[in-house]
TrEMBL record:
The lineage of its organism: Bacteria, Bacillati, Actinomycetota, Actinomycetes, Streptosporangiales. This is Pyridoxamine 5'-phosphate oxidase family protein. It holds the Pfam family Pyridox_ox_2. It comes from the Bacteria.
């Protein structure tokens, strides 16, 4: 461990920093793969998705016949299903990186909404015609970095 001019030890350990909402949304906006967390009736489930950020919402697509679509569909017009979305980036060699969690309500997009939101290009082939918006009600994040 090194010392500074006042003979106080300087740690070379990474520092954990809490991120504000604006920084979190900026970090998430730069990515294309994240994970949606939800309860599928059998317990907590996490599924990776391609996504885009549209304002303070996350837009993602999935298969109409998939577990994610079945779990997030609601029969209530305008209703939302509680879900979370997480994105992170880490450098394991340097023990540095960041993680952001977005929690809120998810709802399927109407055809009119699909035409107005930021497009999402899913990596997997096949049917990905179920579009969802997750509105960011609670956003939190942390960054681990060298001092």
């Amino acid at each position: 461990m090194a010392a500074n001019s006042s003979d106080q030890p300087i740690s070379d350990q990474p520092v954990l920093e809490e991120l504000d909402r604006a920084e979190c949304l900026k970090l998430v906006a730069g990515g294309s793969v994240g994970r949606v967390a939800f309860d599928d009736g059998e317990g907590p489930t996490v599924i990776p998705v391609n996504y885009a950020v549209d304002g303070d919402t996350v837009i993602f697509r999935t298969s109409v016949t998939g577990r994610l679509n079945r779990s997030l569909m609601t029969a209530v017009v305008g209703g939302e299903v509680r879900a979370a979305f997480e994105v992170d980036r880490f450098d394991e060699a340097d023990h540095a990186g960041w993680s952001v969690l977005v929690r809120g309500g998810a709802h399927p997009l109407s055809d009119e909404e699909k035409a107005r939101v930021t497009p999402v290009d899913p990596w997997p082939g096949g049917d990905r015609d179920a579009w969802f918006r997750l509105t960011a009600m609670d956003v939190s994040g942390r960054r681990l970095h060298r001092p």
